[in-house]
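Onboarding guide, step 5: your first structure request.
Type a short instruction followed by the sequence, for example:

Predict the 3D structure of this protein.
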Amino acid sequence: MPLRDYLAVLRKRGWIIVLVAIITAAGAFAFSQVQTPVYRSSIKINVMPARLDWGLQQVIKAMMRNYAGQIRSRTNLLKVIQLTQLDVTPEQLAQNLRVSPIESDLLMQIDADDYDPVLAAQIAQTAAEVFVEDTRVYMDQQDKAERVEVSIRDDAQVGVLHHPKWKINTAAGVAFGAVIGAMVVFVLEWLESDTIHTAEDIERHLGVAVMGIIPTRHAGRGSRRARHTPPPQSLP
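The system replies with structure tokens like these:
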């Protein structure tokens, strides 16, 4: 299809794309407004070897996933619940707690989600402190040269909005609506692809030049009326 045909389609049915995009964007914005905000607080834990040894560093990287499992273990979460006096089960708390090992930086990141931004920070901070304390108790029983030192890099801050993010949702609604609108336009054009409207359509389908066009019935009646109209009488 030539470029001018695409432009003609946009001029003819572009309003459909715009309308659908507006509707989906409005729906996404409204959905974002009715959702309950969830806040996220994060904290990072340093996991460093007691000595600068490449082999010990590799052992630490291999152990980080195990450390992440320890933080989200039932035993650890029960301690967090007790210290923060939460009225939830360990399973419910685990759904709102994420632990991400950052092996390249020898870090563990804990993300806690909650409807209360202050409580989210308390959960993240407590989970980190419990893990650090338990690890230090265990490492005190190990040889000093083989120990792993864990420490909190920075205390958890008050949670920030995690979702819903209405700007992102609205933009996604616009993009999704534009795609749906374009599909609707494509279907409509496909349904009318076999319908001939103009002389250009005839030339495009048959590959021959149009030499003349039969006037419409309405135009014929008008011309007949014009032929039967008596000429104006001349003045004496």
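Each response can be followed by summary notes, for example: Residues 141 and 147 are 9 Å apart (CA to CA).
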